[in-house]
Design goal:
about 160 residues, single chain, 4 helices
């Protein structure tokens, strides 16, 4: 069965994507973060800041579906920052992360005229982003228990 990427158009779909994010985070990311980092991440997912971004339209969500099953999600903040990218473990290594990134980056570069795209990669996501073409702009940081490496993807001019 093929994968279909759809822009999340309503709160029910976005809430489902956030639930998937938390589930995948718990398995693949939380062990690298510790209790404080995991709490901070959940506060971001369910807190007022993300809610305000959603209300103002400052964040766009895309969902990947395999049939009627949500396989992954990606969120782009302020037209040029990958805020969330999570793929359900059953669908790892099937190209879904790349499909979601292609969609988000295409939107950023074409619709938002972004000159580059940034991401704060978790340790788990670092190989994926490097393979996609992102380069680290600094060493790994830890803020509020969240471990991340700031990265950038430059717009190709070819």
């Amino acid at each position: 069965m093929g994968i279909i990427i759809k822009k999340a158009e309503n709160d029910r779909v976005i809430d489902e994507a956030i639930k998937l994010t938390e589930e995948v985070f718990d398995v693949y990311e939380a062990p690298d973060y510790g209790e404080d980092g995991a709490r901070e991440f959940r506060e971001f997912l369910y807190g007022e800041n993300l809610k305000r971004m959603r209300e103002k339209g400052d964040i766009v969500f895309w969902c990947a579906y395999c049939g009627d099953k949500l396989a992954g999600m990606c969120a782009l903040r302020n037209g040029s920052h990958i805020s969330l990218l999570f793929v359900h473990g059953d669908f790892h290594r099937q190209g879904i992360g790349r499909m979601l990134m292609d969609t988000a980056c295409g939107f950023a570069f074409k619709e938002k005229n972004a000159r580059n795209i940034t991401v704060n990669s978790s340790p788990y996501g670092l190989p994926f982003y490097k393979n996609y073409g992102f380069i680290a702009t600094d060493m790994e940081r830890i803020e509020g228990g969240i471990r991340y490496t700031p990265m950038i993807l430059l717009k190709r001019t070819d």
